[in-house]
Fold these 2 entries.
Entry 1:
Amino acid sequence: MNFDNIKSALENEDHAPHVPESLAILKKSEMPILRIRKTMKGEIITQLLCIVIFFVAPSFMKLHQFPRAVYYIFMFLTALMTLGYVTKMIWFLKKTESVQSSTKETILLFIHDIQLTLEVYKTAIISGSILLPISITALLLGSTNFDENLFQKWFLLDISVTGIISLIFGYLITTFFIYIITIKWADNLYVRHIDKLKNVLNSLNE
Amino acid sequence: MELTEKEFLQKIVTHKGIIYKVIRIYFENHNDREDLFQEIILQTWKSLASFKGNSQFSTWLYRIALNTAIVFFKKEKKRNDTIRNERLQPISMQDDTSEKETQLIHFYKAVYQLDKIEKAIILQYIDGLSGEEISKNLGLSPVNTRVKLNRTKKKLQDIIKQQGYEF
């Protein structure tokens, strides 16, 4: 096979697309890592908004003192975890999106960054979601429309053994579903990109 | 390297042939090529600050273009699957097609059936890069690069033969 002919034919071809006069008119990136960044940016904004809404919500409701305190403590912990995740995301977004290393290094870096971020994301969402039901219950049972001790009894497990067992099972089932939904959702959003990169890496290593 | 946007785009105009070779070998479809072309410009601009000038701009751009093409996934999978499922048909040529043009048509037809890494290897080989340069660009050992290069050349030849052509 004569590659010299191919080379000269390739060099004689000149149908390069038009170079735009401004970078602003370029289409948005289609790289997997940049698509993930885009999704994450949206999530960061949504989560920050949720934190604000959750902190403001009790102001519009009449709550007893104890459930109000529990609500804020648990919301604070949830917010702290979310902010930790958001900080990690911002770090991730700012990190150099380098494609100038060798191909193998570039792919490995992409896979590493995506996987690391994904793990932090899953942990934060799952931990936050486990705490959230307590805040929600405080908001619902702590209303001044109910007896002042109703939430306190529930929170201090001052309920029947059957009630405690139901509570544990209810909590475990809720946690399990939150876990499954989070994993499925994250996999759907991010893992397919990792798989594509892994396929390229495999073909590099074969 | 510090360049204004205008200076950068001017540099891209000067070197757009390098980008064209990469997009041409990676995508058959014009719109996909256009998308990849834009993506390469975008990635080059983003990486510009870390270009220290240790190599020539064209060499650096070539590497950025190849890496971008390799991690760029748009619409590609479906199209490749379609190609794999198609039976290879001999290509019919018009009488006035020159020998070189014919070779190029067969070459492209065959190259679109290679995977992303094989495309990168064959393009660098045709562009006259040494085994050492190819292995450095891809991050592979020289032995692995040599094995892959030979395998890719053989695969390319086989595909072209299946097209009912030989050169």
Entry 2:
Amino acid sequence: MTPLQSTPEWVATAPAIVLALTGLALLLIDTIDPDSTNNGLLAGTATLGALAAGGIAGWFLIGGTGMESTGGAISLYGDALVVDGMSLFFTLIFTSVAAMVSVASYDYLADQRYQGEFYALVLFAATGMTLMGMSNSLATVFVSLELASLPSYALVAFLKEDRGSIEAGLKYFLIGALSSAVFAFGISLVFAVTGSLVLPEIAASLAEGTELVGVLGLGVLMIAGGFAFKTASVPFHFWAPEAYEGAPAPVSAFLSSASKAAGFVVAFRVFTVAFPLGTVTSIGGGSVDWSLLFALLAVVTMTLGNFAAATQQNVKRMLAYSSIGHAGYALIGLAAITVDGGAANGDVLGASMAHLFVYGFMNTGAFLFIAMVEKWGLGRTFEDYNGIASKAPIAAAAMTVFMFSLAGLPPFGGFFSKYALFFSAIESGFWWLAAVGAVNSALSLFYYSRVVKAMWIEEPSANLEIGSQPVGMYVAIVFAAVGTVLLLPGSQPVIETAQTVAAALF
Amino acid sequence: MIIEALIAVTFLAALVTFVLPDRYAGKAAFALSLAPVVGSLYMWQQYDASGNALLGGNIAFETDVVWLQLGQYDIHWMVGVDGISMPLVVLTTILTTLAIVSAWTPISERQSQFFGLMLLMEANLLGVFTALDFFVWFIFWEAVLLPMYFLIGVWGGPRRKYAAIKFFVYTNIASLVMFIGFVSLVFGLGDSITSLRLPEIAQALQAGQLGSFAGLSAGALASVAFIAMFIGFAVKVPVAPLHTWLPDAHVEAPTPVSVMLAGVLLKMGTYALLRFNFTMLPETARAFALPIALLAVASVIYGALLALAQQDLKRIVAYSSVSSMGYVILGLIAYTTYGVGGATFQMVAHGLISGLMFMAVGVIYNTTHTRMVGDMSGIADRMPVTAGIFVAGAFGYMGLPLMAGFAAEFFIFKGAFESTVMEAMPLFTGAAMFGIVIVAGYLLFAMQRTLFGPFRFDGDYDITEAPFHDVAPLAVLLLLTIVLGVSPDIFFTMIQDAVTPILELGGAF
């Protein structure tokens, strides 16, 4: 039965509300005594808020809120928002990443000013992402996307004394503004063709056919461009290495895991609901075939991300490119959708969602390890990582788990999610896409294992000193590592939920 | 449940060892590793299976539960043993324990990590030999590589980084090739299977359910999949010319790790070849009999010749493994009871004897700190026990009757001569037998120069007899080799029972 069955429908947005209120509460705490900041209180509040929102989302998911078992998606505010399984599933990703980042930031921010603002910005960005997951109209998509983006720009540039951080923030902001403009223009073109911004209505209007195939095609292409920016996919990926490298590492973790997932949830919903493949391919002789577009983007993105990552000397930058590569894998979820795919569509999209879920753990963990290394004052190149395992074996073991899991090696969660993704792509008939993915995944082992090699096998430099043992970071990293390992034996609920909620879209 | 218990206990032993202080780790790891030894012997004693696990035989200690429901093909947690895997399980547990003891002397830093990784590797190896679902099997198969990578990379010799990465890259690419080959078979089977359980897949293939996939007809798909899987496993075995990672890995790896590498890890390759290529696609295997037999003979002769050219004792033993594994391939392609059964028996026999040889070289190295043949002579004067066992082991390698190596090679040659897969088979067998002569040549030559003659040593170390705990594992291995040689039926009966169904498919008719 649905939790809170007798309550008003807006309660279904509780995860977003809790996140927003926590953000406001953080500002309030900071306002009460602006001269002294209580880092522990702030980090604790942010973490608890994120966990509470995630807990509610998980409870709703188990209870079946907005899912077929309890009467289908809950539509709110004149169809502007929708709460369904997919939005809840992604909320779980955003909140788990936000919680890990908040815990880790406790140590990272220890000597920084404006701590209250930092946590509040993280929470507001998470609110925006959660709303992105619920958006059912191009207008709310745009607004929530901006709500998620604006705090992100500020977070990237958070280290005001650091030239790299400022530069990264500026680049991120400029490209973000450009892509927002492109995205808004795409929305206006689609509106011109269909006369609606609400996703199901767009689909209904398109089903009746249209003369303006070129305008529609251009609109769809521009909207796809907006998503490519948010998910750091080719061709709007240029900002990602700069932003991830310059940003404070916990922010990089947040952006590369949660923000990317947010881009994907919007893309999944907009393209499957507003532009169903069967409808758009029947218009104008199939010239608006976005499945082909995403297949190309997936191949180019994963290959480019992988090869660029292989040439890096800087671990953080390598991870940034690897994050582009993983966007390519996740794009398979959209690329392998077929007109008459039936259940296979839900399977492959669900597998992509499950991959993003696992990725939320392993990638966040990897960036948080980098945050810890930055905290220790070590450098960012592979050489600077030499021999870390001799000083901090637990953290190094966790990082090893993340690296091998990102490479898709058993026995970790990353193997399972890639396996599910590639297998369901083959079942949809896209065996060549799966083959490209598998080969890329095998090549990626090269650069991931370099980190492992540096940490465990290389001799430490003579003056390798590790000052503190940051408790919060250890908690977050170990949590992420345990999650990454347990997601292999415990993958059944994740993949089952993901594929069920994805199937509801078709 | 006993298989799950066996794997779980070994995992726990690994975890416990990881957190122990370095001083106690070696002793504790030894004590903990006795549990899986006892467990596997208990399994062997209670063993009641018959037939081949993949071909509808009665599987011992079977568990089969659904683990993941994922699209078209369910993933089951399916484990169990038959006459092929049971001996390898016993070999794994015993050899790991002995390797742990032999590591007490040479491993002097980061012991808890070393011994923990050894036990972790053992747990995964047990999984490889017992898993009967492809997904489960592949997880264990890959998970073996990770401990091995660290064991070579952290505790290895001067060029350990190169050797570790070469091993890792070679075997991972091989795994990918094999994976793609197998998965294309699965999709070629289409709706005729509902899970990735190996028995189900093997039986569907026998029933002729293979369809077309990715534009390949069923026949072409079987050939492509066979070649992909063969390449994937051949790297692991290794079959010449895919063997180049092996000498590097062996020479750089610390001795106990070499023991595991030669004794058990190489058997993963031959075991998988038998289970996948030769059981699932027997017609394709027979069609490729000529190139496979050629590769087998090439491995035997080329490996032996390379061994002949080495000055490093460890390299000699490493290359002779390539040669011995060639016999296994020859036995497999023969498709006769004695051929395939002998090949399986050789997996165990070679595991014991190569383990013995590597350990003996290691014991000598612990004392002399050199492995070069030219650096010493007359070592037998100072280390009589070690030298004696070394000589006995070397004769085992050469195929002295009443030792396991003799039984294995005899079975293989008998089976290969009887083979009907192609007319030229006796010719190939005769050529492969010539390998024994070369083996005798290089082993006698190496022993004569290092062990016998007047004592001479170019180093600064005192040469005295090795401590008891160095020699004891050698003695145990020698004893086991003799026991298996005197009564091969300990394992050969169950092996024969398990390989006979394969031959009935493949055409000993």
